[in-house]
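tokens incoming
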């Protein structure tokens, strides 16, 4: 199981009245992939630049796809640029993968189509693995979820327990990207409101 898969399950448990924006989730999934590539020693960081150091395959199709998509020439790619490039449409890719890879009867197809997004009926090894990391306050998963505004009782402050400077760089890049994306949304809302007001004017 990968951190990205676990993060997706965590977001599926978010109440329907506080859903995670798909663009935000895509950025966070790309950050999770980068953290797993760091852990697998496929890449390292030079300041905020992603430096490929191995072509080792992890055995996970999507994570290996992330490794294959790395820029392997200097000056390499910044962590934030990676999030924007790799994150494009990534949440849909992970949802599709889960729909097709989970055992029949696991409930994922129903989950993705249900308006209330309840996950009570889903029982699978993948979901149990994600739940175990979440219940154990695993710092990487909690840090990514916190960036998306997801926190549970007992998880507060867990992100600060991350000691690896490389992880801190990735989480900071994710925070910057999410802030930028929200600013884009706000500008768009202002422009749409202004356009609507023009048409409503007498």
């Amino acid at each position: 199981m990968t951190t990205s898969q676990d993060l997706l399950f965590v977001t599926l448990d978010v109440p329907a009245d506080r859903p995670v924006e798909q663009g935000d989730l895509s950025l966070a999934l790309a950050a999770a992939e980068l953290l797993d590539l760091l852990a697998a020693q496929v890449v390292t960081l030079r300041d905020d630049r992603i430096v490929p150091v191995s072509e080792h395959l992890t055995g996970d199709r999507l994570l290996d796809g992330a490794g294959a998509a790395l820029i392997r020439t200097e000056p390499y790619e910044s962590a934030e640029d990676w999030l924007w490039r790799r994150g494009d449409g990534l949440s849909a890719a992970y949802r599709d993968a889960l729909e097709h890879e989970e055992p029949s009867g696991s409930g994922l197809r129903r989950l993705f189509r249900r308006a209330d997004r309840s996950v009570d009926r889903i029982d699978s090894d993948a979901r149990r693995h994600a739940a175990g990391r979440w219940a154990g306050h695993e710092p990487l998963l909690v840090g990514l979820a916190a960036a998306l505004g997801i926190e549970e009782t007992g998880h507060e402050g867990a992100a600060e327990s991350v000691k690896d400077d490389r992880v801190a760089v990735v989480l900071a890049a994710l925070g910057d990207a999410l802030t930028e994306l929200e600013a884009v949304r706000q500008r768009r809302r202002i422009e749409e409101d202004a356009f609507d007001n023009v048409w409503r004017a007498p």
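note: The mean pLDDT is 84.
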